[in-house]
C-alpha cells in the first residue's frame, strides 16, 4: 500500500529518541510522512523511541536520508519551510498546502545557518513564544505546526468529520481560581 502524505515532517539530525517517537505517533495520526536526516542521535531500534511511538511505527511512513540534499530530492514538488525560533514570519500567517514540508533542527543546535540560507527568509517560519523562553520541545513544535497546516485544509481526512449543526460539549477539569 502506497502512503500518500498530506504533509512532510523533516527532522534534521534529531538527537532525542522520545521526541522522534512522539513525532512518529503524530505523523501516523495526521497523515504526514516523516523524514529523518542523519546522523541520528539514536538507533532506530532504540527502546525509548519505540516506547514513545507505541504501536504507531507500522502506521507511519518513515524514511531515513543520508543528508538534506538526499531528502530534498525525494520531495521535488514540496514547498519546504524551516521552522526556527527566530524567523521573519509566523507559521500561522502563511497559507499552507497539502504536500508542504516542514524542516526542524536538532534539539540542541537547531538548523545550521547554511540550511536557512539555502531555503531563504521567505521559507522560514517561527512559532510565537514569550520573550524570555529559548524554544519549544521539538515534538511540541512539530505538533503545533502540523495541526495548523491540517487546520488550514479543514482537517482533510479526519476520522471524525464535524457535522454541521452539531456542537461539541464542554467539560470542567477542576481548575478554579479561589
Mean pLDDT: 86
Report how far the terminal alpha carbons are from each other. Answer: 55 Å
Strand content: 15-25%
* Helical coverage, percent range: 25-40%
Structural class, judged by helices and strands?
A: alpha/beta
Count every beta strand, where a strand is a DSSP E run of 2 or more residues. 7
Helical region count?
Answer: 5
Order of helices and strands: EHEHEHEEEHEH
Unreliable runs, pLDDT <50, ≥5 residues?
Answer: 168-178
Which overall shape is indicated by the principal axes computed on the Cα atoms?
Answer: globular
Report the sheet with the most strands, covering strand number, pairing sense and barrel closure.
7 strands, parallel
Largest beta sheet: strand ordering: 3-2-1-6-4-7-5
In a few lines, what is going on in this structure?
The protein has helices at residues 17-30, 47-53, 68-73, 113-119, 138-152; strands at residues 7-12, 32-37, 61-65, 80-83, 89-90, 101-104, 124-126. The protein is an alpha/beta fold and 178 residues long.
Question: Characteristics of this structure?
Answer:
178 residues; alpha/beta; seven-stranded parallel beta sheet
Amino acid at each position: 500500500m502506497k502512503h500518500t502524505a498530506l504533509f512532510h515532517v523533516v527532522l534534521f539530525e534529531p538527537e532525542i529518541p522520545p521526541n522522534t517517537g512522539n513525532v512518529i505517533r503524530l505523523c501516523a495520526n495526521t497523515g504526514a510522512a516523516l523524514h529523518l536526516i542523519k546522523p541520528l542521535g539514536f538507533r532506530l531500534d532504540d527502546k525509548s523511541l519505540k516506547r514513545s511511538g507505541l504501536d504507531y511505527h507500522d502506521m507511519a511512513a518513515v524514511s531515513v536520508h543520508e543528508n538534506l540534499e538526499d531528502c530534498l530530492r525525494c520531495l521535488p514538488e514540496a514547498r519546504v519551510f524551516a521552522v526556527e525560533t527566530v524567523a521573519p514570519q509566523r507559521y500561522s500567517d502563511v497559507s499552507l498546502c497539502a504536500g508542504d514540508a516542514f524542516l526542524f533542527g536538532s534539539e540542541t543546535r537547531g538548523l545550521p545557518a547554511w540550511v536557512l540560507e539555502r531555503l531563504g527568509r521567505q521559507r522560514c517560519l517561527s512559532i510565537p513564544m514569550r520573550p524570555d523562553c529559548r524554544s519549544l520541545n521539538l515534538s511540541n513544535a512539530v505538533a503545533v505546526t502540523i495541526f495548523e497546516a491540517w487546520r488550514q485544509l479543514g482537517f482533510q481526512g479526519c476520522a471524525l468529520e464535524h457535522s454541521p449543526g452539531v456542537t461539541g460539549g464542554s467539560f470542567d477539569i477542576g481548575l478554579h481560581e479561589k
